[in-house]
């Protein structure tokens, strides 16, 4: 699809990657950009149409779909990381991450799919992570939710193919946002991530591996679990030492 003259909705558009997506969409000629956020008063980007949206609240998602019936590009960006482990961490925190990172995205897709069909098919972008493919102590709830969201993305891609909707999975390592502020390593700039994703959408790509980290992880998926864990331990140690 062509970004120019598209009508896009970006979730979590008040900061970080979401704000970068909204800004780059405007710069690339999108006719309208809905900037959706749980706290709409924090959206500070000129030129967007602000929408209140809590992706974990079905009524809020339904209201957003009713307010934005002209959407041709849905960018599911909103997400959380609670730093929770699966065995010893809070099960409520694990559920909260799942409700946001997987069910929240799926709820958006279910509500907006009819509008996308009416508007020519359009495209959906799900912002996932290289942690769709590996875990780590202190982040296994996040790994679980991103792995589930990856599977969900692959499923809805098959289900929406008949209506002509492109479904693009985006994987990245770390972006230079508040969520990754505690990691003293190289990170992809939000504007670079947004540019790569929008290029991928225009090219009709089902998957965007946005940085070298995500490409490296994807290339190791044929390893055994033991080999993958060892490889990721080495890669993380090298990253932190750089």
Automatic annotation (TrEMBL):
Pfam families from the UniProt entry: adh_short
Keyword Oxidoreductase: yes
Cell membrane keyword on record: no
Classification via InterPro entries: NAD(P)-bd_dom_sf (IPR036291), SDR_fam (IPR002347)
Keywords, comma-separated and alphabetical: Oxidoreductase
PANTHER family assigned to the protein according to its UniProt record, in alphabetical order: DEHYDROGENASE/REDUCTASE SDR FAMILY MEMBER 7B, DEHYDROGENASE_REDUCTASE SDR FAMILY MEMBER 7B
Family as reported in the entry's similarity comment: Belongs to the short-chain dehydrogenases/reductases (SDR) family.
NCBIfam families in alphabetical order: PRK08264.1-5
Name used for this protein in its record: SDR family oxidoreductase
Provenance organism: Streptomyces coeruleorubidus
